[in-house]
Write a structure and sequence with these properties.
With about 180 residues, this protein is of the alpha/beta class. The chain has 2 domains: about 40 residues; about 110 residues, 3-Layer(aba) Sandwich (Trna Endonuclease, Chain: A, domain 1), CATH 3.40.1350. The protein has 5 helices and 5 strands, in the order ααβββαβαβα. The radius of gyration is 29 Å and the shape is elongated.
Length: about 180
């Protein structure tokens, strides 16, 4: 029979009182540090909240953080590009959030502030709204891109899909 080799080293097990001492030291250090860090954390959170409220934006990208704010932002981008833009009322807008006019052209805009890619529904809505308002250009502006299916449908019906960060440049191209 083969002999089993004995381990040359063995892990020493901690005694229960050593665990207790470690926990007591951890809690003591935590209680000593918190009074110094807490005011700094509170001030930082308050200042960050005030800045966010004043700007009305999310932390990344500088886009508004509400759908209504995003619609106003899209209208402001159109105005900055030389269009006369108005936000439509919330209900009964036929899928169009912003109507803009410039030198005889009318643009119907659907604004989507999503965290995920925008699908077909927005394309279908703005396409219907384009016919309802008699617009020359139909656009979906999104903060998070578009699904492949939405791109396919938009290409077939002539709806423009525009990333929010490129919207002003897009509007300037169509401004006469």
């Amino acid at each position: 029979m083969a002999r089993r080799r004995r381990k040359l080293w063995r892990r020493r097990r901690a005694k229960p009182e050593e665990h207790l001492i470690a926990w007591i030291l951890t809690i003591a250090i935590f209680l000593l540090v918190i009074p110094f860090l807490l005011p700094i954390i509170v001030v930082w959170v308050v200042i960050a909240g005030v800045v966010k409220a004043c700007l009305g934006t999310s932390w990344g990208g500088g886009l508004p953080n509400t759908p209504a704010g995003f619609e106003e932002w899209c209208a402001a981008e159109l105005r900055a590009a030389g269009w006369r833009a108005d936000v439509t009322r919330q209900s009964g807008d036929q899928g169009v959030d912003v109507i803009a006019h410039s030198s005889g052209l009318t643009m119907a805009v659907q604004c989507k502030l999503y965290s995920k890619s925008v699908g077909n529904k927005a394309v279908q809505e703005v396409f219907t709204g384009q016919a309802f308002y008699g617009a020359d250009i139909a656009v979906v502006v999104a903060s998070a891109g578009f699904t492949p299916s939405a791109r396919d449908v938009a290409g077939r019906v002539g709806v423009h899909l525009v990333d929010a960060k490129k919207f002003r440049a897009f509007a300037q191209r169509y401004q006469r």
